[in-house]
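> forwarded from #structure-qc
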């Protein structure tokens, strides 16, 4: 018994006529009758009572109708599920990321991905930079999203991971609200202030950007480390120091802290995707990569994900 025989059987059972079923199936009557006879021979029982007006189901035929409908429905469900997974329209995607990237593009990227692939289950691992890279390296996350160190994608990632820049942001000064009168900030004028920064993990995350910006202005900053960028902003607003962070931090400044452009240029902060180099991406991962790399920034994930020239 095969699926084609079951479909033929159901058509005859529903039409109560071999002739009408053959027309519905776009067949001639002899091959359809031959398939029905083969099915009855294989099962060893008659499925139809034939008469001049058509056919009626036997008790065995009525029972097969129930099973055949269920089996064909299960096959269609399985076929659709497999096809959706293969096309990246379903499945699972686990992302590890540092908290600071949520408001610098990740939230919007996730919204667009969910709108286009609502049946892909998204899982999140929020961690510091070094933990994000380990989540990806160990396979606990399909992709990681981090702020690269000032040296760029070639530094700190490791030979087993690929990195692709998906966003670049300028650095801005973060000041208490009462100091909002200045248009641009010369960091040299803040040399005596404590500089709040996220705790330095692995390759340094945003802290190395802060230190580098201060050194370009001619001084070594006095750092005060906390766990999260949100905490940095809150403590700056409370008057416990100043900071230098990516421009998107303005979205979480609230009423107590402000951001201002820097008077002297400093290296931008690059946000990058990380993935395991040796492992082919699953269809949902591939779809996410293509969407994330649909930016003006260059990618470094290889020709499989490169955008077409002029695209």
């Amino acid at each position: 018994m095969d699926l084609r025989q079951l479909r033929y059987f159901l058509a005859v059972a529903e039409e109560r006529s071999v002739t009408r079923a053959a027309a519905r199936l776009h067949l001639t009557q002899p091959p359809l009758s031959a398939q029905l006879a083969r099915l009855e021979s294989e099962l060893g029982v008659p499925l139809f009572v034939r008469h001049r007006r058509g056919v009626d189901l036997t008790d065995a035929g009525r029972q097969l109708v129930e099973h055949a409908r269920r089996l064909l429905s299960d096959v269609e469900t399985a076929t659709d599920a497999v096809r959706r997974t293969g096309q990246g329209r379903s499945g699972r995607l686990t992302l590890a990321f540092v908290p600071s990237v949520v408001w610098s593009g990740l939230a919007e990227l996730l919204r667009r991905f969910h709108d286009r692939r609502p049946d892909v289950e998204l899982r999140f691992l929020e961690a510091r930079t070094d933990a994000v890279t380990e989540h990806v390296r160990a396979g606990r996350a399909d992709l990681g999203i981090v702020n690269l160190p000032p040296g760029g994608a070639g530094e700190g990632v490791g030979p087993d991971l690929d990195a692709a820049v998906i966003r670049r942001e300028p650095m801005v000064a973060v000041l208490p609200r009462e100091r909002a009168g200045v248009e641009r900030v010369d960091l040299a004028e803040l040399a005596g202030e404590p500089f709040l920064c996220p705790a330095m993990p692995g390759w340094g995350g945003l802290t190395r950007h802060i230190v580098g910006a201060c050194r370009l202005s001619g001084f070594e900053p006095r750092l005060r480390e906390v766990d999260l960028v949100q905490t940095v902003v809150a403590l700056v607003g409370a008057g416990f120091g100043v900071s230098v962070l990516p421009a998107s931090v303005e979205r979480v400044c609230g009423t107590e802290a402000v951001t201002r452009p820097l008077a002297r240029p400093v290296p931008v902060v690059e946000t990058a995707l990380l993935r395991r180099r040796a492992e082919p991406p699953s269809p949902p991962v591939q779809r996410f990569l293509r969407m994330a790399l649909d930016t003006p920034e260059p990618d470094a994930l290889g020709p499989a994900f490169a955008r077409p020239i002029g695209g």
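QC bot note: The domain at 171-267 is CATH 3.40.190.10 (D-Maltodextrin-Binding Protein; domain 2). The chain has a mean pLDDT of 85.
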